Structures are given as C-alpha cells and as structure tokens.
Amino acid sequence: MSETKKIDPRTEKRREAIIEAARELFCEHGLSGTTLEMIIAEAGGSRRTIYELFGNKDGVFEAVIRNCTGRVTKIMRDLPISEKPLRETLIDFGENLMTVLTQSDTLRYMRMFLGEVPRFPHLGRVFYESGLMTGRRLLKEYFEQQIKLGRFPNHDPEQAARFLVSLIKSDYDIRQLSFVGWEPRTGDLNEHVTLAVDMFLAGYGLGKPITDQTETQSPQLRQAE
C-alpha cells in the first residue's frame, strides 16, 4: 500500500513513526536484513498495523522511498535562484546543490535505494524525476527566463541545465557513494563549483576564456581531480 489513505491523526502518527523507524533500519541493514519484528520493536504497534497501513514489508519500503524522495525534493525546491548577476547566481546554485548531494542523509538514502532498484523499478523513476531532476528543472526555468531577458544565448535551456549540472556534480556524488568515509572539503567544493560555472559560461561565449586554471587551483583540488 504505497499511497497514504485518509486516516485519522492518531493512525497517521503511527504510520509516520513506522516510516521513521524503518528508514533507519533499511539504511543500516538493507531491505533483506530488516524484518517486520525489528520495525515493530523500534516503532511499536503490531504486524496487523503494518499490514493495514502498508500491506507488507515491501509496502513499508516503498513508503520509505517516497518519504526520502519528498525530503530530497523539498531541499531541491528550496535551492536559491536569485536576481543576482548570472555568474553569481549559478555559483550560488551550484554550491547549494553540492551541499545537498554530499549530505550524509542524501548518501544514505541513495545507498539504501540503489541496491533495490531492480525490485522496485517504478520507484526508480519516481526517485529520479521527482527528486534528483528537481534541481535541473529549476535551472531550465531560470535559463528560459534569462534567454527572454537577453542575458543568455538562445540555445536549448534544458540542455544547458543538463550540461551545467553535469559539470558541477563531476564525480563527487559517485565518489562518496563508493569511497565510504571520503568527504570533500567545503573550500574545495566552492572552488570546484566556481571553475565549473566559468567553464560552462565560456562554452556559451560568456565570461572570460578558461586559461591556466590549474595554476590557480588549490593543491587539494588538483589532487582530488
């Protein structure tokens, strides 16, 4: 039972408690390593409650994924798109995007979910389009606005958003997912985002050409790349 029914506040509170407990257990033990008994021990209630609200353990997992997707979506929707100059706005957006993608909770949700995608392919699309794609859609809308104002070349705004997000993300997210314990430094992330934005703008004929960038990069960033 993946969708929330019209239920009374007390039952809704119980449902939220089950999702909260299950999320932590799934992150730690995975789907196969988590039992209904473990969820009940953490959240209270009974098997009957879980069956009535979610159907079975897979239903609990689906509710957890939708809950995690909602959390990521909210953060993404709150990413600032300001009225500052173009370059400054893109740098602000990139720094906030990287903060979201490298948060420990985001990484935990990704690790939990990626291993179960083959069993829940419909949720893969939900997680990707409703969560991870939200930031790209915000950029697309921003570029559409900038094109109308004559501040950005009249090229495909969706492609521009895709290019910029790819430059900003680089391999930081997959590196953190695979190299457990590795974390980027805030200063290195800021420097990386600035360089990515400058490369993007130069590619669209805006800003100064990128020359001798490695001479001004910090040693930590050069080593990370």
Protein model, in words:
- InterPro entries: Homeodomain-like_sf (IPR009057), HTH-type_TetR-like_transc_reg (IPR050109), HTH_TetR (IPR001647), Tet_transcr_reg_TetR-rel_C_sf (IPR036271), TetR_C_Proteobacteria (IPR039536).
- GO terms for molecular function: DNA-binding transcription factor activity; transcription cis-regulatory region binding.
- By secondary structure, the protein is mostly helical.
- The chain folds into two domains: 45 residues, Orthogonal Bundle (Arc Repressor Mutant, subunit A); 140 residues, Tetracycline Repressor, domain 2, CATH 1.10.357.10.
- Helix content is 72%, strand content 0%.
- It contains twelve helices and no strands.
- Helix 3 crosses helix 4, helix 5 crosses helix 10 and helix 8 runs antiparallel to helix 10.
- The longest helix is centred in the middle third of the chain and has 28 residues.
- It is elongated, with a radius of gyration of 21 Å.
- The N and C termini lie far apart (45 Å).
